[in-house]
Amino acid sequence: MAIELVAITLWLDDSALIGSGGLVGFVGLWGAWILRGLVGFAAVFVTFAWLKHKDALEPVSGEIGDSPFGWTLLAGHFGLIAVFVLLSSVLYGSSRSSLVASGWLATGIAAIALAGFAFIRPAFWLRIARITGSLWIWALAAVLLACISGNSMRSFWPWTIDLTFRLVQLLLSPFVSAMVAEPSKLLLGTPRFSVEIAPQCSGLEGGALMVAFGVIWLGLFRRECRFPHALVLLPAGVAVMFFLNSVRIALLILIGNAGGERIALGGFHSQAGWIIFNLVALGFSVAALRIPWIRNTSAPIAEAEAFENPTTTWLLPWLAILATGILAHALSADFEWFYPLRLLAAIAALLFFWRKYAELDWRIDWTAPLAGFVVFAIWIGFDRFNPPAPETMPAALAAASAPLRNFWLTSRVLSAAITVPIAEELAFRGYLMRRLVAADFDKVDPRQFTWFSLAVSSIVFGAMHGTSWLAGSAAGLGYGWLYAEAAGSATQS
């Protein structure tokens, strides 16, 4: 479904429908937001359902895993997707009528429903709804609020962009002596580096995200919060997001003025906003449960007891690589000089759990190098049929000093040959392939894998390799089979 969603968003352009009348115009204005709302609702509902009702949902999850899969419903889903594609070509082509738009919406919603019923039968959906109670109302309200405010915020852009412009100018004044500021053009910076602050950068979208997050949090954890005191977190969160957005723009200008133009307009510009939102959301959560004036003292928060989380053991090295990758990309321009941070983060995570990993079976037999050779042959074979574009050493790396260049290349080779493969095996074979079999995956014998768990974990593994996804998926199948076979050999010996 994620692949279908990405394909739809890349293919269809709602701007072609804006200005049309009736339901067609509605699709043009709200089609993209409907998709965002569906994805947002699913993510919000699942996340908070697990946080609030984990104990009650685990038995249902086990029953769902034991129930037969709805292959007929899944076939119906793909059939409706084919009809949806046909109607999309008509609706976004020359023939635009409300009848076609109605069929387009109905077909899309029905396709989603059939996919949902294929994986989880309607009876289980009803049980989940009863267990989670009013959660779906909170999730729907938060997503509707975010979508409506996000689509309607354009009318506030002129006012908020002016405020953002003045705030960034104020933040820059202590650090910049000769400032370039043209309010009529929204141009701000220095003689060396300046930017045009677009309306989309006014900070409203970040504020809308915080409102949605805050509404859900306060609704679900209302017993732990003191009202109306806790409501102050909503405007506080929006204000902090708005202020930090201005800080982000000011830092972008300072980075560009210091000579890092490509860093400012590249990684920092694309990643800083998400980093800020995650930090503010974390601060919101901590404040709601830790500040006495906001927390409901009659419902004390129990101190967390020490416990072992097997998921962390298997996933943390891979997540550490991804997290430091975001940071390294935010600090980079057209070349990621901070790539060695990924190596250091992976080593730290592996060392932290080394005692757990030492309990694994580290014996090696002839099947491991054989599997490596087969995967190598498959990968090269795919490249022969679909040769990649020729690559040369990046100009920035070639122009660097020999010690710096050798250090970067050494870090890159060590990551590709040691830390990344270990982290990938822990995450995709050790965790995901078994987690798709049962919730208590750490108790699942690798030989108990299902074809579904092997296929899905392999496809996800392949998707992480970009344009080489097909070769990566084939490699994932081989590694998954080897993992199961190695477990069987270890048991026999």
List keywords for this structure.
single chain; 493 residues; mainly alpha; 3-stranded antiparallel β-sheet; 18 helices; 71% helix; globular
Q: Your description of this structure?
A:
It is built from 18 helices and 3 strands. It has helices at 2-11, 22-66, 71-91, 98-119, 122-132, 135-152, 157-172, 204-220, 233-257, 261-290, 310-330, 340-352, 354-358, 367-385, 395-399, 402-435, 451-463, 469-492; strands at residues 180-182, 187-189, 194-196. Strand 2 and strand 3 (194-196) form a beta hairpin. It is globular, with a radius of gyration of 26 Å. By secondary structure, the protein is mainly alpha-helical. Strands 1-2-3 form a 3-stranded antiparallel sheet. The mean pLDDT is 83. Helix 2 packs antiparallel against helix 6 (135-152).
Q: How would you sum up this structure in a few lines?
A:
This protein has 493 residues and is mainly alpha-helical.
Mean pLDDT: 83
Q: Supply the number of structural domains.
A: 3
Uncertain ranges? none
Helix run count:
18
Topology (SSEs and partners):
Elements: H1 2-11, H2 22-66, H3 71-91, H4 98-119, H5 122-132, H6 135-152, H7 157-172, E1 180-182, E2 187-189, E3 194-196, H8 204-220, H9 233-257, H10 261-290, H11 310-330, H12 340-352, H13 354-358, H14 367-385, H15 395-399, H16 402-435, H17 451-463, H18 469-492
Helix pairs in contact: 2-4, 2-5, 2-6, 3-4, 6-8, 7-9, 8-9, 8-10, 9-10, 10-11, 11-12, 11-16, 12-16, 14-18, 16-17, 16-18, 17-18
